[in-house]
Sequence to fold (192 residues):
Amino acid sequence: MFFPEGQVRVFLYGEPVNMRLSFDGLYALAKHVMHQDPLSGHLFAFFNRRATQIRVLYFDRNGLCVWAKRLEQGRLVSNWADLKSCEMDWTGLKLLLERALRVIPMGKKNWLFSWTELGAKHVGIVQSLLAICRLHDINPYDYFVDVLQRVGQHPASLVHQLTPRIWKEMFADNPLRSDLHTISGRHACVGA
Fold:
């Protein structure tokens, strides 16, 4: 499934759905309950009652498609009371699929104002990386210090190795350190 990330809209259905529903049943929910056009090319996400499965309905030029994921452990949604039908962006869906749909406290709403759309996009990327690091039990400070030093000399064809999950497997045991680390003899991160 290939989507231009800036244009895709994701509609989340905020109530549990029977996972036996397929094309027609999910189409009916999107059209008549969510009041959206399922043939628009946008994504429509549905969860089962235990929040261990998700189905995504979308129209791909010549027909409806259903994409599904079942978790072996954990839940996609921790509390149904917190979830309601809403619209999110492609990045939000990716984080949800990584089970990272959590509020990231930034303090005094200082991240709400990024001045420009590009600035907000960059803040979103950093927040996404922080959330994924937490999911994989990676110290974000170690990850960012290593990747920012490594990215200039790393082959472009292997840039996927710098994503948090693969980075943990390949580089976490011996990450590159900053000069501050060797001066202080420990992490130079505030609160470490």
The beta strands are 10-16, 43-47, 53-59, 64-70, 86-88.
